[in-house]
DNA sequence: GTGATTTGACCTCG
DNA sequence: CGAGGTCAAATCAC
């Protein structure tokens, strides 16, 4: 998930409460107790993997100059009492200092909904499954373009990792209000698995155009199944 | 004081 | 042994 932030040091609120439990430097970060002369071998590898992941294809020297981030590790605050296993990792994008790459793992089982206090009664997050979505058997990456025609203003869209696919990652880039293009990275995801999306406002429909190295292109209309039922906050 | 964050040490796995 | 991830004591913010 790539999130544009209005703040300096943390992406926009995603509707859940998180507690930070760790942080790791990325190569080139301005760690108070280390500089470039103290870089270790695995830092360099970390960086190369990061570059590959974000398709930056930059040289090492360029990236040392540009990268300024660390990666923060967060877990749901309700883990102790509700066993919620949701976690996320946050790091600043090296291509745009106001963008953050956020990787979600697991799904919330705590049913927390902090957007319930929002000004609009319809600004509630809805968990929907893309029941009509045939996910390409992605071995590497699938390019996903999706368009959300919202009844209200679309505050944001999440694509969550499928529950049965441990280690899979899903990313998106948030664009304008109702049209968004994202990269959908789902290693190990099989055809039969279902991707989950969370909408902060309820869209009327979403069109998916999937492109992958395997499937040349797959256009589909997504049918939604509301998994959360009627809201408790109306 | 209480709760959250920081940060080096530690753990696990390939 | 290296790398990603996590722990937990110290520190910080309120």
TrEMBL record:
Family: Belongs to the disease resistance NB-LRR family.
Organism for this UniProt entry: Aegilops tauschii subsp. strangulata (Goatgrass)
Subcellular location: Nucleus
Start and end residues of each stretch annotated as Disordered: 166-186
Domain of life: Eukaryota
WRKY domain sequence ranges: 7-108
Protein name from the UniProt record: WRKY domain-containing protein
């Amino acid at each position: 998930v790539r999130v544009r932030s209005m703040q300096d040091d943390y992406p926009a609120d995603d509707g859940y409460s998180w507690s930070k439990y760790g942080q790791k430097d990325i190569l080139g970060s301005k760690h108070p107790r280390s500089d470039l002369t103290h870089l270790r071998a695995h830092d360099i590898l970390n960086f190369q993997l990061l570059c590959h992941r974000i398709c930056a294809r930059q040289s090492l020297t360029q990236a040392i100059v540009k990268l300024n981030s660390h990666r923060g590790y967060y877990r749901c605050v309700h883990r102790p009492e509700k066993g919620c296993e949701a976690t996320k990792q946050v790091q600043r994008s090296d291509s745009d200092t106001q963008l953050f790459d956020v990787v979600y793992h697991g799904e919330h089982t705590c049913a927390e909904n902090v957007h319930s206090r929002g000004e609009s009664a319809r600004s509630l997050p809805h968990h929907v499954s893309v029941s009509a979505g045939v996910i390409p058997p992605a071995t590497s990456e699938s390019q996903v373009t999706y368009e959300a025609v919202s009844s209200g203003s679309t505050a944001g869209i999440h694509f969550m990792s499928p529950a049965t696919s441990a280690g899979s990652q899903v990313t998106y880039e948030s664009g304008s209000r109702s049209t968004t293009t994202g990269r959908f990275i789902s290693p190990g995801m099989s055809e039969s698995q279902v991707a989950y999306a969370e909408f902060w406002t309820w869209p009327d429909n979403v069109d998916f155009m999937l492109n992958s190295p395997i499937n040349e292109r797959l256009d589909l209309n997504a049918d939604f199944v509301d998994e959360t039922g009627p809201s408790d906050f109306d």
